[in-house]
Amino acid sequence: MKTISRKGLGSAISVELREKIENPIEFKPLAGDPAHGYRAEVFIEVCDAIITAGRNGLLSPSQEFLAIQAEFIVRSAAKVGIIGLIDEATSFIADKRREEYRELWGQFIREEFRSWEAEFPERLFDSMYRLYGLKRQDPKSFKHPRFFSKFIRKYIYAPLANSNGAILAELEAKNPVVYANGGRRYKMFQFLSDELGMPALKAHLWQVVGIAAAAPDRGAFERAFNRAFPEASPFGKQADLFDSLD
């Protein structure tokens, strides 16, 4: 209720859907106290509303990750749903199929979220190669030029949540360089909380991805980034670390 009542997303919730949300079904679980629930389609209707709000530019930066997650859910539900329709049409409905549906759902969700198993989506790296005039030899490879890590620190982690490098400094303290090649034992995002850190990272990240995708060259990207995040430049004491990314 708190989420759908916020400015932006709230305007995408229809009167009919809001009425359904405000009037949940009371039921008695097999164990525990009475609970509130909804018909399954209400969940998809909420996802649709979030996706629509995202496409119409109604979401705030901190809410943009909701549209991404909603699309993952709707796509996965569609895959499981079509399998269920075919089973029903062919009279193949059996109790054993329930577990198969659960496995399929989990598999589809994992496939949709696979892009987040890596620290950043491939669209960001594609733009980085283009902006620096580099040819990507193997699109499937996770190995990138070492200076890309400086780019990510400067444009992703240093300005995160208007922290002016404070969050980056904390992450580096928790995840120091331990390998001779400058590598770290963990990925930076693994130290961000699910409640605040990851949503903030995703919201900021997709803004940077959009700016990078639209910029014809490095100079245009830098100017567009500074217009979008004027408070992020300079980074105070962090500035010396980023004087040259080459």
Task: Describe the protein's architecture and organization.
This protein is mainly α and 246 residues long. It folds into two domains: 9-116, no CATH class; 122-242, no CATH class. The protein is 51% helix and 2% strand. It has nine helices and two strands. Strands 1-2 form a two-stranded antiparallel ribbon. Helix 5 (122-131) runs parallel beside helix 8 (197-214). It is globular, with a radius of gyration of 22 Å.
Produce the secondary structure layout:
Elements (H helix, E strand, L loop, with lengths): L14 H8 L2 E3 L7 E3 L2 H16 L8 H26 L6 H17 L9 H10 L16 H10 L8 H9 L22 H18 L3 H11 L18
Antiparallel strand pairs: 1-2
Helix pairs in contact: 2-3, 3-4, 5-8
Outline, from the CA principal axes? globular
How many separate domains make up the residues? 2
Strands, total number: 2
Described by strand count, sense and barrel closure, the largest sheet is: 2 strands, antiparallel
